Queue: 2 jobs
Job 1
Amino acid sequence: MDTFLLILAVLTLIAACLSTVELSLGNRRIKPLRYTGVLDKLYGKVSIVVAARNEQRHIRQAVESLMDQDYSQLEIIVVNDRSTDDTAAICNDLARSHDRLRVIHITQLPGGWLGKNHALYIGAQQASGNYLLFTDADVIMHPTAVSRAISFMQQGNLDHLAVSPQASQKGTLLNILVGTFLYLFTLGKKPWKARDRESRFYMGIGTFNLITADAYKKIGTHERIAMRPDDDMMLGLLVKKNRLQQDVLNGIGMINIEWYASLGEMVRGLEKNAFAGLGYSVLFAVFTCLCLFTFMVFPAVAVFLTTGVARIVNLLALAVWAVSYADNARFWKIPLWHGIALPLGTALLIYAIANAVYRTLRSGGIDWRDTHYPLEDLKANRL
C-alpha cells in the first residue's frame, strides 16, 4: 500500500507540473481585449442579440452598457423569452428612449427548442448586421468593447471571436467553486488552441460570441444546436467543423458578469449543462469524477495517510496545484490565494457534476427556466 501511495503521489506531482507549464504558456497566448487597439476605419453593422428570461435584476444596466458602445453602426435586439417578472416592462421602457434598441416578445416555445437557443435564433433572424454578437442579459460591457472586438476580427480576418468575461461573485465558497471550474475548464478546453484550424480544440463563450452573419448562416444557425444546453460552446464547435477562423480574447476590465449569486445557485445552474458537457455519458461522468478526486482531492487526504517521502511528494503536488491555480486565476480576476483550497473546490465540483447527472436521470431530462426538456431530445442533438 505504501508503494502504491508513493507512485500515485509521484504521478500526481507530474500531472500538476505538466498542467502548470501548459496553462502558464497557453494563457499568455490569449491577448487581452483591453489592449486591442481600435482601427481608424471600421466597416460593417453589428447586431447585438440578447436572450432574456426573468432578468429584471440586471437587464437595465446590461442593456444600457450596450447603448453606451462607441461603435456607430450598431443595433441591439433584446428577445424577451416568456418572462414572468418585470423584464418585459423594463425592456419596453428602454426601447422608448433608445432608437437603436428593438424588443421582441416571445410568448410560446415551439417544440424541439431550448428557450435561450430559440430566442437567440429569432433575434438573429431579425438582425440586419454583418456581424452578430450573442450575449447574455446580465453582461456589462465597457463602452469600447465592441469596437475593439470588431477591430481584432477585421485585423485577423476572423469569422468568430469569443471573449471571456471577468466573473464577479460574492462569498468565499462560491468564489472557490467558480475559480476551480474556470481552472479545470481552461485546462481541459485549451482556448489558446482555438485559433489553430488543425487543432480539435474550439471555443465559444455565451457572454460574448461574435460571429459574421455569413459564417452564422454557413454553420447552420442555432437550428443546428436547438437542443444543446451548452449552445455557446457548440457554436464554437460548428465554426471549427466548418474550418472557419476563430480566436479568443481575455475580457478582464471590459466584459463583466455576476455569474452566480450563491453557491446553491451555481450548483443548480450546472444541472443544466454539466451532463451535456460530458456527452450525457454516465461512464464518462464517473471517470471524470474519479480522475478529479484522485489527482486533486486525494493528495490533501493522503498527506494524513502517508509518511516520509510520500507525504513530501503529496505536499509538493498540492503546492504546485495551488501555484497553477493562482496563475490561472490572474486571467479571470479571481482571488489567487484560493488555490490552497483547490481540493475543496474540486470536491464541490464533483458534487455538482454528480448532482447534475442524478437529477437529469431521475427526471428524464433537465428543468431549466420553468421548462422541462426530455433527455431523449437532448441526446438526439449530437454534433
Job 2
Amino acid sequence: MIIGIDIGSTITKAVSIEDGNMTRKLKTKAVDAVTSAAGAFGKMILENDIKMAEIERIIITGAGATKIKNDLFGIPTDQIDEITAIGIGGMFLSKQDNIIITNIGTGTAIIEAKPERIAHLGGSGVGGGTILGLAKKLLLTSNFNGIMELAASGNLNQVDLLLEDIMETDISFLNREATASNFGKMLDTARHEDLAMGILNLVYQVIGMISVFAAKSKNIDRVLVTGNGSNNPIGKHILATITGMYGVAFEYPQDAEYTTAIGAGLSCSMRG
C-alpha cells in the first residue's frame, strides 16, 4: 500500500493506493506542513484500521511538502513535485493520455499531460484564494459556504458592465449578455448577493479563458478541471457559458479534488 499526501495551503488530502487503484481518501484542514501531513496520515490509518506494516511508502507533494525533510513514522517517505503529481493523477482519473488540466486551488495551474511528458503551461494567481480574499473585504466574510449562498441569488447586472450596456448589437460570436468588464458597472444598489456573484464570475471567467487559450494552443478541445475549485456549481455554470462561446469543453472527473494526492501515490509505481 502506498499513501499519497497533498499538503496544500488550506487543505491537506490523503489517499491510499493499492494495486494501482485508489482505495481510500480523506481531507483535513491544513496547518503547518508537518502537522498537516502527520494528521492526515494518522487519520487515514486510524479511521480505516490500517496496520503500519501494510504501508510500503508515503509520497508527499504540494505547497508544504518541501518542509518535510525526514521519513514520517519510520516509513520511507519521498517527494514528488506538484505539477507532475497533477499530471499523473489527471491522466488516471480521466483515462486519457493527452490532456490539458486546469487545477483550481488557492491559485490556478494549467498542465499539459502525456505519458512521455508532463509540462506546466502556466496559470494564474486567480483562484479560490481570490474568492476568499475579495469576499473578506467586500462582503466581510471568508466563509465559503456563505459566499456561495449569497452568490446563488446574485445579479451580475448590478456589478459587471455587459456588452448590452455599451453596444446595440452582438460583437462577433459574443452576445449582448457577455461581460465587457468585470466590476465595471458597480451600481450603488448592488447587494452583497450581487457582489458575491461578481467575485465568482470574475474568478471563473479568468480561469476559463486562460484554459481555453492553453487548450487551443495545443489543438485540444477539452480541459480536465481538478482541485478544490472543480466542485463549485456556480463555477461550472460559468465555465459552461465559456464552452458555448469557444467550443472547449470542461470535464469534471469523479474525485477531482484528490487528483494531486492520487498522482503522488501512483508516481511510486510509475517510477518502479
